[in-house]
Design brief:
Elements: H1 2-44, H2 64-71, H3 78-109, H4 115-125, H5 134-143, H6 150-158, H7 166-173, H8 178-185, H9 190-201, H10 203-218, H11 222-227, H12 237-243, H13 250-274, H14 276-286
Helix pairs in contact: 1-13, 2-13, 3-6, 3-7, 3-10, 7-14, 8-9, 10-14
Length: 290
């Protein structure tokens, strides 16, 4: 009996030691990850200088950087960039969400010739990074007059939306097909089944699709910078904030850049935290073979 108690205590002591080591490592990693964000927030409240300094915490705290970010629209128009980003993100989110969910529903519930080949083709094409076609896309849109405006940027974002079907399709596959059959017996059409039967049961994947569709254009820099060459009034926040870091603007706008980065990240972080449960359920529910 004493030997068993001794072994139990030894095992318990080893578990506690292991947990302490793991938590110490996780705390160190968290500190390393949080330092850049802490530096960004602290510098956004710095009042003694607008350029880059060699210390983290300001000697003088102020809200002027946020006030100037919103009110000073003569040179770097952050409110316009924010509005452009919001418009593009909302329009893209609505169109892309509809396309992804409709495509996923069709591939999950309907059987037609070429279905497997179409799914495999979209999956293979989705493996290639989008920036490989940036130059070609730019010149094609330039020929039809869609460069330098927000409509062309929305078109770029939604053009390949259907290729993101696999997560949503996997979730739809988990919903019993008997519900569709029961609805058909009651006289419901495919349109009615999709909107009134499937979507109410697929709230996690709908929220997941909305979030991913909104976040991608919100933080995009590559396509936005290419499409809006020289059109400063059509910049999104990513391109606009990068403009603040140029050699001539950095000494004057660094603290304002930090303030802009904080303003941009707060709504997204709040939205993600609020809908995190649905986001996780959507990912895990859609990660099935189908």
């Amino acid at each position: 009996m004493a030997e068993k108690i001794k072994k139990f205590r030894s095992k318990r002591k080893a578990e506690i030691t292991t947990n302490v080591i793991v938590y110490i490592i996780l705390i160190c990693i968290s500190v390393v990850w949080l330092i850049p964000y802490l530096y960004l927030v602290a510098q956004s409240f710095r009042g003694e200088s607008t350029g880059v300094v060699g210390y983290m915490f300001p000697k003088e705290w102020t809200f002027n950087n946020y006030i100037q970010l919103i009110t000073d629209t003569d040179t770097l128009n952050f409110p316009m960039w924010y509005l452009n980003t919001l418009i593009v993100s909302l329009v893209t989110c609505i169109i892309q969400t509809f396309i992804v969910l409709a495509t996923s529903y069709c591939l999950s519930r309907m059987r037609f010739r070429g279905r497997k080949g179409l799914m495999n083709l979209m999956l293979i094409l989705g493996m290639f990074p989008g920036f490989m076609t940036m130059t070609a896309i730019y010149f094609i849109l330039k020929q039809i007059g869609l460069t330098g405006n927000l409509a062309g940027l929305v078109l770029v974002y939604v053009a390949s939306s259907a290729m993101g079907y696999y997560i949503s399709k996997g979730f739809f596959d988990t919903i019993p097909r008997s519900l569709d059959e029961a609805a058909k017996i009651d006289g419901a059409s495919q349109h009615t089944i999709f909107l009134k039967v499937i979507l109410p049961l697929a709230k996690p994947i709908v929220v997941y699709t909305i979030l991913t569709s909104f976040l991608a254009p919100w933080g995009d820099y590559m396509f936005a910078s290419l499409m809006m060459l020289g059109e400063t009034d059509k910049f999104n926040v990513a391109v606009g904030l990068k403009e603040m870091l140029t050699r001539e603007n950095l000494p004057k706008y660094f603290t304002r850049f930090c303030a802009g980065a904080v303003v941009v990240s707060i709504p997204i972080a709040a939205l993600f935290i609020w809908l995190q449960r649905f986001y996780v359920e959507g990912v895990t529910g859609g990660a099935v073979k189908g």
